[in-house]
């Protein structure tokens, strides 16, 4: 038994096993073809899935965008949007009482105090606009001319007139009971100029937290310490819009 | 007798040529995802590639797993074949790389292989020297996974120790020592099995 050299050993295996052919079982091809079918199905499903996801995102985004603007107008204290709410929405007493008093918050201490304030002091003195209601108190028909009544469209306008009368009657008849149970929405558009400015300032503060753009700005300020952030939003009356992008090499910034 | 011999040789040559042409024409269809063309390509190369996979596997099941994975790669990458060298060589490299990949995955999942486990029957071979081939194949398969990888890559595929080290994620020294260990194990077993028979055959 002579020892086998490395060369001999390598040659033996190269020669014998190097070009060996062995028939694999038929199951292998079946598995391969099944796997390729799965892959093909996945491939064809993938774009459809992403297209669906993308379109849903676009729909939601545009939806949110368009529903934002009426909200902004409402927050500025428009009379048109406030009126209809009077008839439908009736929030709980606790919120109702707070609203008329909110300009001077010191008054909110306990419910009985508030009742007293709202029934006696608030309506005639604090808001100049309440003079309207006071006038209405004296003579209801006076309010009717306020609504632009075209004679041909009388029927339509009657509905609006009714609404205003209803509102005013709440204040004229029994104020103490109403103030506790009804929202004093009319007070909102009866604010004096000072009151409106104050209110708008408040709204602006709230807007800072509310809009998505400002939320992104807030997060960016925490994450990105550069002067020009990765992405910046600018607040405008239509909502927020991208005002700057900083990708390191590429910087885009809109003029303020 | 001589005449028959040459005609037989010519026949063989024609068959080989046919086969390469067939493979070339199949490639275009395979790129387009033609299932029948893919099956023909598989059938043309499967037994050769199974021979490669068997060397890298510890048994037939593992070899067939490598074969399956390898062909899936071949079909997904067939458009990347640039015609440099033979297509068969390209497929063979994919098989070897697949075997290496599976080996490294098993290493990571700490798959401990019992060297004394019972082996299933090796499938029928096309070669006449059935017994000897089966024995040699078994010897390779019975090497521990690491030795088997290095031995196959160095001795049969012709990789350098540097390439083996890079592909397996080991040092060149480890590759060398594993090769020499694998060789000495194989020598021992061959001598034990056949003694002088093998030794005289080699010479």
Topology diagram in text:
The complex is a heterodimer of chains A (256) and B (203).
Chain A: H1 6-17, H2 27-75, H3 79-88, H4 93-101, H5 111-126, H6 130-138, H7 154-173, H8 175-181, H9 186-189, H10 193-210, H11 212-223, E1 231-236, E2 239-246, E3 251-253
Antiparallel strand pairs in A: 1-2, 2-3
Helix pairs in contact in A: 4-5, 5-8, 6-7
Chain B: H1 2-31, H2 35-56, H3 60-77, H4 87-108, H5 130-142, H6 145-156, H7 161-168, H8 172-194, H9 196-202
Helix pairs in contact in B: 1-2, 2-3, 2-4, 3-4, 6-8, 7-8
What form of chain A results from the Cα inertia axes?
elongated
* Rg over C-alpha atoms of chain A, rounded to the nearest angstrom: 36 Å
**Biggest sheet features of chain B:** none
* Helix-strand string of chain A: HHHHHHHHHHHEEE
Low-confidence stretches of chain B: 1-5, 113-130
- Can you list the strand order of the major beta sheet of chain A? 1-2-3
CATH topology of the largest domain in chain B: Rna Polymerase Sigma Factor, Chain: A
Q: Alpha-carbon distance between the termini of chain A?
A: 95 Å
Strand content of chain B: under 5%
- In whole angstroms, the N-to-C terminal distance of chain B is 29 Å
Percent helix of chain B:
over 70%
Class of the largest domain in chain B, according to the CATH hierarchy? Mainly Alpha
Query: Unreliable stretches of chain A, pLDDT < 50, 5 or more residues?
Result: 93-109, 113-126, 142-150, 156-170, 186-191
Number of strands of chain A: 3
DSSP, total strands of chain B: 0
Going by helix content, strand content and strand pairing, the class of chain B is mainly alpha
Mean pLDDT of chain A: 64
């Amino acid at each position: 038994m002579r020892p086998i050299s490395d060369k001999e050993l390598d040659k033996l295996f190269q020669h014998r096993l190097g070009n060996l052919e062995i028939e694999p079982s038929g199951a292998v091809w079946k598995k391969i073809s099944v796997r390729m079918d799965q892959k093909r199905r996945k491939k064809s499903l993938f774009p459809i899935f992403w297209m669906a996801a993308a379109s849903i995102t676009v729909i939601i985004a545009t939806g949110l965008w368009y529903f934002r603007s009426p909200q902004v107008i409402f927050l500025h204290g428009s009379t048109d949007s406030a009126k209809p709410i009077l008839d439908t929405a009736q929030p709980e007493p606790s919120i109702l009482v707070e609203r008329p008093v909110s300009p001077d918050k010191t008054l909110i201490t306990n419910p009985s105090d508030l009742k007293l304030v709202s029934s006696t002091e608030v309506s005639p003195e604090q808001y100049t606009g309440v003079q309207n209601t006071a006038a209405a108190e004296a003579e209801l028909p006076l309010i009717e001319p306020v609504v632009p009544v075209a004679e041909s469209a009388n029927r339509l306008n009657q509905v609006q007139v009714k609404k205003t009368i209803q509102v005013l009657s709440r204040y004229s008849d029994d104020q103490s009971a109403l103030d506790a149970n009804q929202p004093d929405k009319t007070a909102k558009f009866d604010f004096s100029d000072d009151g409106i400015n104050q209110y708008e300032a408040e709204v602006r503060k709230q807007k800072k937290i509310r809009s998505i753009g400002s939320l992104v700005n807030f997060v960016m300020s925490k994450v990105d310490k550069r002067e020009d952030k990765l992405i910046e939003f600018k607040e405008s009356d239509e909502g927020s819009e991208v005002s700057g992008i900083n990708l390191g090499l590429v910087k885009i910034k809109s003029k303020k | 007798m001589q005449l028959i011999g040459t005609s037989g040789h010519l026949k063989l040559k024609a068959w080989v040529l046919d086969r390469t042409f067939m493979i070339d024409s199949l490639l275009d269809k395979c790129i387009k995802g033609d299932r029948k063309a893919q099956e023909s390509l598989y059938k043309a190369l499967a037994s050769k590639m199974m021979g490669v996979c068997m060397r890298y596997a510890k048994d037939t099941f593992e070899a067939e797993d490598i074969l399956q994975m390898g062909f899936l790669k071949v079909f997904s990458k067939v458009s990347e074949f640039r015609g440099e060298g033979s297509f068969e060589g390209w497929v063979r490299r994919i098989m070897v790389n697949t075997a290496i990949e599976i080996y490294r995955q098993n290493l990571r999942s700490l798959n401990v292989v019992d060297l004394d486990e019972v082996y299933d029957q090796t499938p029928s071979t096309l070669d006449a020297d059935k017994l000897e081939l089966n024995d040699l194949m078994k010897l390779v398969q019975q090497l521990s996974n690491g030795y088997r990888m290095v031995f196959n890559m160095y001795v049969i595929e012709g990789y350098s120790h540097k390439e083996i080290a890079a592909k397996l994620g080991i040092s060149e020294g480890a590759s060398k020592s594993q090769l020499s260990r694998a060789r000495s194990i194989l020598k021992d077993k061959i001598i034990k099995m056949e003694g002088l028979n093998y030794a005289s055959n080699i010479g």
